[in-house]
Design goal:
Blueprint lengths: L1 E7 L4 E7 L5 E5 L6 H10 L3 E6 L11 H8 L2 E5 L9 E3 L4 E4 L2 E7 L8 E5 L3 E5 L2 E2 L2 E2 L9 H11 L8 E4 L9 E2 H7 L8 H8 L10 H8 L8
Parallel strand pairs: 3-4, 4-5, 5-6, 10-13
Antiparallel strand pairs: 1-2, 2-3, 7-8, 8-9, 9-10, 11-12, 13-14
Amino acid sequence: MIFRQLIDLETNTYSFLVADKQTKEAVIFDPVFEQVDRDYNLIKSLGLSLKYSIDTHVHADHITGTTKLRELSGCLGIVPEFAKVQCADLILKDNDIVKIGKIEIKAIATLGHTDSHNAYLIDNKILLTGDSLLIGGCGRTDFQSGNAGLMYDSVVNKLFNLPEDTLVYPGHDYKGYTVSTIGEEKRLNLRFLNKTRDEFIEIMNNLKLPNPKKIIEAVPANELCGNLKG
């Protein structure tokens, strides 16, 4: 497997490139519009063929690069079930599977940050959590029909039941961390550690965070899969 973690420094967003070494088929997760040229040049330099561009959810902090990548490569755009978009080529529901070569990518519905969100489990080893489970934290739940109770259920009842050595790669990190494991998050993540569901909801409902800087432009653009031409 080829695996690359890519970052957009302006929004602290991680994108991920995954490819099968034999078939050279590739998928990119959560591409950022401003980084498409960088990412596509990497894809070409590695001799890969981009098959899918997958968004974990409709982002509020950056514009997806899916439409631009689709124009450059002919890849298919994928979003989770319930995403309020009309431009996706495929929709993945909970437990749906897509493949690139022999690599298996399983969608795990992880609602809570928004009302449409998937984490993606790659070959039962690598978990791309998007904005659900973060390293030492979790995504916010106070806009885009977020729901703290569903976030708790998604993380504690689904993700925390995965093997403890499963690698956790979140969609964002604001402290410079890049990777964790399910076991580490179960033991160290203070948002969830020894918290009841009601206690977690109380915490999430009182974070009082400012809105993402790009929310006004990002959400409508992402409902068009990043098509800035409208």
